């Protein structure tokens, strides 16, 4: 296989992940011969903070999921461009978008609508109504919602009332946003005595701290 043939293969297999053994062989041959794949240039453009707006717009339609996932992190993207990626991107693009703290509600709704990425569930800017929707529609994301520092107290209560998993209940116990009433529920209703006892300890500690703060 010549470098020219390798380049042809790579340009046909534009969805650079790389995704196939043939793509790997082509990449190795290209780089061994000192031939720079066009993909590398596009990837650098997606990463470069000073990439011109017109090139960012062009990269929105790049056939490579890897290029678009790098683009999803770019600080120069505008709201409509972010929304476009949220609505059209694959899993890697959506995961990268979910880490942005400046997402519009429309973009977050688009990400939450179908297989919400873990990064979105952990994003502290995610509003309560979307947290509740994700919990109801995608219970497999429970652990990710628990890792959100701004998890809604209502979400934490629903998790506590619908789970008997000891690890999940303990995570609820030690979350800063957990209500006293939720702690009291776990202290009484948790399926195992160890979790109930820990809940009582956490509840007592929280009440003591609250009492001390009121005395000041």
UniProtKB/TrEMBL annotation:
Keywords: Plasmid
InterPro entries attached to this UniProt entry: ARM-like
Protein name in UniProt: Leucine rich repeat variant
